[in-house]
Design goal:
- The complex is a heterodimer.
- Chain A folds into two domains: 84 residues, Rna Polymerase Sigma Factor, Chain: A (Orthogonal Bundle); 89 residues, Orthogonal Bundle (Arc Repressor Mutant, subunit A), CATH 1.10.10.
- The longest helix of chain A has 22 residues.
- By secondary structure, chain A is mainly alpha-helical.
- Chain A is 64% helix and 2% strand.
- Chain B is mainly α.
- The radius of gyration of chain B is 44 Å and the shape is rod-shaped.
- The chains are: A mainly alpha, B mainly alpha.
- The interface between A and B is large, with 45 and 30 residues.
- β1 of chain A pairs antiparallel with β1 of chain B.
Chain lengths: 185, 140
Amino acid sequence: MIPKTTYVNEKELIRACQRQERKAQKLLFDRYSAKMLGICRRYVKRQEDAEDVMIEGMYKIMTKINQYSGSGSFEGWMRRIMVNEALMFLRKAHNFKVSVEISNIQIHSKVTVEDDLAAEDIIKLLEKLPTGYRTVFNLYVIEGYKHREIAEILDISINTSKSQLILAKKRLQALVEQNRMPGVG
Amino acid sequence: MKSKKDISDLIKANVYKLEERPSKKAWEQLESRLDQHARRRSFSFRQIISIAASIVGIAGITALITLSFQRGENDIAAEGVNAVEPFLIEAVENINEEEKGFYKVVEFQKKYQDRLSNPDFQEGKRKKITVANSSSATAN
């Protein structure tokens, strides 16, 4: 059978990838790799490491694509694999349990900003956060996990997760005020 | 227009912009890993086929051997104790000493075959080897 070079919709592309058609896999990579690398960059500090994590994640997506049920969002399924992959990478080098727990600290993380924030600014801000802060901030604020779920994923206590989030926000606020980022002031 | 915003909300609202084109070697690395995966898959498929073929082959040979043994036993059982005609050396005329020895060997073989098929062989049913006209044969 001759593989097709164009796919009318995402379902057709997924089916071709399930048949391990190389052209479909390349198309899937071209379509989503930039977005997936963006996710990895939020978690992993070094650009080269983030790319390695993205490649590993894409490999898992393409070899386990038969496990995608087809019911939910395909992009959401891929995002979860990428986040898991990034967390696996971080676990090798970082002990999430080694962190300071704080309690009853209220911070005011409101800053005067334009409604817009450039992608580079986001990366610059997140890069400056310690791994623990950055990971919890990503999981809670961007991915929408609950503290209970984060505690389970990272094998830490719920209080540690809450503390890390508060400290992350505090650090971000300080960074914004220090650096006077474009659009932020 | 500037307003007071939570830094988390601000990042969340703009995170969709985070897209970064991977390097060219990224696809090459991924493709080589996918090739390895495909090779492993096809290898394991070949392994499964060859293992299945070996099992079928061994089962076939075992079945053939068993069947042939069973058939042999049935044939011998069907022939019974008297299936092998007693060898009558006395019926052979003008036999010399050399030939007599040969016939004895043949008789022995037949006797042995008979015992294999029937352990309860009755000696009494066998005829005694007697060579007819042995004196005349020796004289000749």
